[in-house]
Structure formats: structure tokens, C-alpha cells
Design brief:
Blueprint (H helix, E strand, L loop, with lengths): L1 E5 L5 H16 L3 E7 H7 L4 H6 L7 E6 L2 H12 L4 E9 L7 H13 L3 E7 L10 E7 L14 E9 L6 E8 L4 E3 L29
Helix pairs in contact: 4-5
């Protein structure tokens, strides 16, 4: 289980996109369940088919479930995590909510540990709070590097690791989403050469979202 927080409310779209990318990596070819709080949809916009396609998502990859309230969102997460066919679950919630308590996060972590998938809880309009998650991240959108011919660049993010179970100080990565490879990567330097992402992070953290934990 991993907590993802939008750095500001304006980064709500970025946190959902980042969460989808992380879920795609963690799912490893299995299905993704995206539980979307209705308030998140109202504040940040509802999913857009062409946009999901640009992320590299096919309709067969994902089941989208809309939740009118946080309690329903939590139920969606627990039930999805108990389904063997599901490889990753993304729950997108807006605002502060008593239902998203430490006890609720422990229930989700137990479901993730006893099930078959990895859980990402993406929150916008809320301050980071204690939870049972293995890691806690703060995410914001950053400017994309244009592609050849002035084409729009890949979705780019600044992701700061705020906390990780087992220790380790805060650290920030700038990364972009590669639709074709379905993975995050470092932006290419101006020379055009690509620096492997693992070169600047410890080997154990090179794929922080591929490990399923309780």
C-alpha cells in the first residue's frame, strides 16, 4: 500500500495520472480497478477516454468504479484487493475525511497483504497524515520537455518520497511517463542521451511500486 498526495489541489489531475502509471507498473499485466470518489471527479474532472489512451491504457486494462462517498470508496478498495485477477487498485479521494483514518488504512493494508494486488491511495485537497502505508509521496506536475518537431512532451512529475517504512530521508525525483514502455523514466538530458533511472537511486528503490506489502 502506498499513499500519494497532490502537493496542491491544482495537482489533482497529476496525482491521478501518476497513480494510474504506478498502478500499470504494479499490475504487471493484470487488471486495474480505479475507484473514483465523485468529489474528485467534480473538482479535477472525470476520466477522458483519449487521455487514458495517451497514458497507454486500453479499455480491457481497467475497471472504473465511481464512489459517491469515502466509505464506498474504501469498500471498493477492500473488495478489489481480494480478487485474484486484480493486480493493482487506485483509490482517488478528494478532501479531508474522517473515514480515511489510521484504522481504515490498516484494513486496506491487510487486504493488500492478504490479497493479490498493490494499493495506491491518491488524495488531493488533503494534508499528509499517518497511515499504515509502506510509503508516502507528494506529487506535483512539472513542465514537459517537448519532443522532436515541437510535439507535446510526455507527462512529467516531481515525486517526493516523504516517508518509507524502514526509514530513509525525504528525496525527490523528476520523472516522466513513457506510454510505450508503460513505465516512469528520467527525462532525457539536453544531449538526447538517456540516463537509466536506477543510476541515481538505490537498487532496492528502483521500482518502488512493484513490491506488494501488508
Amino acid at each position: 500500500m502506498h499513499d500519494l498526495y497532490a502537493e496542491t489541489p491544482a495537482d489533482a489531475v497529476a496525482i491521478n495520472a501518476f497513480g494510474l502509471g504506478a498502478a500499470l507498473q504494479a499490475a504487471d499485466g493484470r487488471a486495474i480497478v480505479w475507484g473514483l470518489h465523485d468529489m474528485m471527479g467534480l473538482e479535477a474532472g472525470r476520466p477522458h477516454g483519449p487521455g487514458l489512451h495517451e497514458m497507454g491504457l486500453a479499455p480491457s486494462d481497467m475497471l472504473l468504479v465511481r464512489a459517491p462517498d469515502i466509505q464506498t470508496l474504501l469498500i471498493i478498495g477492500e473488495e478489489a484487493l481480494r480478487t485474484p485477477a486484480v493486480g493493482a487498485v487506485l483509490l482517488s479521494a478528494w478532501g479531508e475525511a474522517r473515514a480515511l483514518s489510521l484504522t481504515a488504512s490498516r484494513r486496506l493494508a491487510l487486504a493488500a497483504g492478504g490479497g493479490h494486488g498493490t494499493l495506491f491511495l491518491a488524495r488531493a485537497g488533503a494534508a499528509p497524515a499517518p497511515s499504515a502505508a509502506e510509503s508516502r509521496w507528494s506529487v506535483r506536475a512539472v513542465a514537459s520537455a517537448p519532443l522532436e518537431g515541437g510535439a507535446p512532451g510526455r507527462p512529467s512529475f516531481s515525486a517526493t518520497l516523504l516517508r518509507r517504512r524502514g526509514g530513509g530521508g525525504p528525496r525527490t525525483w523528476i520523472m516522466e511517463w513513457d506510454r510505450d514502455a508503460r513505465s516512469f523514466r528520467e527525462p532525457a538530458p539536453l544531449s538526447g542521451a538517456v540516463v537509466p533511472l536506477a543510476a541515481q537511486r538505490p537498487a532496492e528503490a528502483s521500482h518502488p511500486f512493484r513490491r506488494r506489502v501488508a
